[in-house]
Amino acid sequence: MERIDGTGARSVQKTPEEEATALESIQFTDEIHRLISAPSDNASSFTALLEMPPTQAVELLHSPESANLISNDTFKPPHMEDFKGRLHFPTNIALVERAARFSVFAGEGSNNTNIEKNSVETALNDSSANLKKAVKSEPAETESSQPLVSDPTVETKSAKRKEREKKAKGSAKKSKTAANESSDDAEKLPYVHVRARRGQATDSHSLAERARREKINARMKLLQELVPGCSKISGTALVLDEIINHVQSLQRQVEFLSMRLAAVNPRIDFSFDSILTAEGASLMDSNFPSIVTPLMWPEAQVSGNRQPYQQQWHFDTLQQQVWGREEVCHNYITPENSLLSYDSSANSATLHPNQLKMEL
Amino acid sequence: MPPPSSLKQEFLKKWMMGLHICSSSKKNMSILERKKAIKLSADIALASARNGTTCWSQAIIVNASQDDQDKILVQHVLGRESERLMKKGSVLPLTSNKRIRSRKILRRSCGSIRRRARKTIATSPPKVVAISIAKKLIRKRTQLLKRLVPGGKFIMDEISLIEETLDYIISLQAQVDVMRSLANAS
């Protein structure tokens, strides 16, 4: 506090410059608030910046691009969004530590980085209730560092800034005492890792909205696992593209296979024994290599249904399989193949007999 | 969701039943008729294998039972549960009416939002524009997906749309597997 007081006295001498930089910083923070979906990190880093001695703050603020770079690099919101699914608090802390090491504040010593770390932690912890309390309990200790202001609009803006500063400071203080507790809480509560904007997002609506988004993300992840070659893609639109393609290809395959079945079989009733053996084998191969599944249907179902089908089989075997007809059917299929592109296994399956015939 | 193998067996059983009914009702069919019958019975079998619990299976059943000739097939394939499912199917349009109304309201409100958004886009920074473009892309794809999944028009919220899509993809996969093994066997 003493240090800040001293610099405060110094800052009186160079008020115009200070004012200009303060204005700049205010506009900048506001812009960041609008731009970035998780602004609490930036805000806290900014307040950490504001807590530094004014000379250094001025130095840093004269190059806002660099500050922007830092804040954007270290606390990229999309990355945090990605982390949301599997909350690793340790990794977050590691991230923050790395950020502190690489940031410009590293030269400031452990004090500032500590504050920054703690404030980021609290921001991660979604503790706006703490913030409110902090605002109440906070003594007016930042008064001394405030520049002398004459313009009323600037006054209101700086008041806003003061408020933000207070909040951040309070949360930082709070988190110093209860850093361990908060990290424990984070592991217990399910929605802690879904961060809230400061001042927003604690009412039931946005909580519900966030829960909904979580649900959507989880199901999207399931879909991604289901659709082949989709798990590596990031970005909802691309994933949706893949899903649409997959559904379309499956529907086309159904069309094609029913056409093929219609072409191959002169009658709609297929022979049944060959199906069952092939079916059972393929089921065992493709889905449950380890689990033993019954090849046929359970006996209870079979006993009722089997008799008519057995009769059907004998009937079919008598009537079936004229070779010439099948050849005709295959010839019919080939243009179908060239026109529509299905997946390779279907193609190879249909082309194979044709190739054999060509060789013969 | 039952395991895929039991789903496949259920589907195969019902499909065979449907095919049997089809073939017994009509003796000499052209290839296109045969294909249509095979596909229809496969779809109905798929829907009834899922027991009509999902939106898409109900939609398939309802669509199939619009046609009189196919209605018999549906009834036969579904068996005992046909009355229940048909009733459920008749419930679907009723709810859809309500949903259409709510969709109108939604569209109206969306329109106002869009107008507002258009105003802000002109002056907003590039990141905001990018976000709005991404949202638009996702909306387009969601609508396309709704058109692909049967009965998807009636699904309003995204969570159930994704769930339906999941279920539908799994079932389609089972259907394709069964049909392919059948095609390879015969």
Question: Can you walk through the features of this model?
Answer:
- By secondary structure, chain A is mainly α.
- Chain A has two domains: 2-200, no CATH class; 236-359, no CATH class.
- In chain A, 74% of the residues lie in helices and 0% in strands.
- Chain A has 17 helices and no strands.
- In chain A, α2 (15-35) packs antiparallel against α3 (39-50) and α3 crosses α10 (152-177).
- The longest helix of chain A has 29 residues, at 236-264.
- The termini of chain A are far apart.
- In chain A, 25% of the residues are buried.
- Chain B is 83% helix and 0% strand.
- Chain B has helices at 4-25, 31-49, 55-64, 68-78, 82-123, 126-148, 158-185.
- Chain B is elongated and about 70 Å long.
- Chain B has 186 residues and is an all-alpha fold.
- Chain B has one domain.
- In chain B, α1 packs across α2, α1 packs across α7 and α2 (31-49) crosses α4.
- Chain B contains seven helices and no strands.
- The interface between A and B is large, with 61 and 57 residues.
Pick out its properties.
heterodimer; A: 360 residues; mainly alpha; 2 domains; 74% helix; disordered N terminus; disordered C terminus; B: 186 residues; 83% helix; transcription regulation (chain A); DNA-binding transcription factor activity (chain A); bHLH_ZIP_TF (chain A); nucleus (chain A); transcription (chain A)
Summarize the structure.
Chain A has 360 residues and is mainly alpha-helical.
Number of domains of chain B: 1
Number of DSSP E strands of chain B: 0
Order of helices and strands of chain B: HHHHHHH
Find the count of extended strands of chain A (DSSP E, 2+ residues).
Answer: 0
User: Biggest interface and which pair forms it?
Assistant: A-B, 61 and 57 residues
Total of domains of chain A = 2
Q: Tell me the Rg of chain A in angstroms.
A: 34 Å
Largest sheet of chain B: none
Share of residues in strands of chain A:
under 5%
Poorly predicted segments of chain B:
none
Classify the oligomer: heterodimer
Region (Disordered) (chain A): 1-20, 130-191
InterPro entries (chain A): bHLH_dom, bHLH_ZIP_TF, HLH_DNA-bd_sf
GO cellular component, one term (chain A): nucleus
Domain BHLH (chain A): 200-250
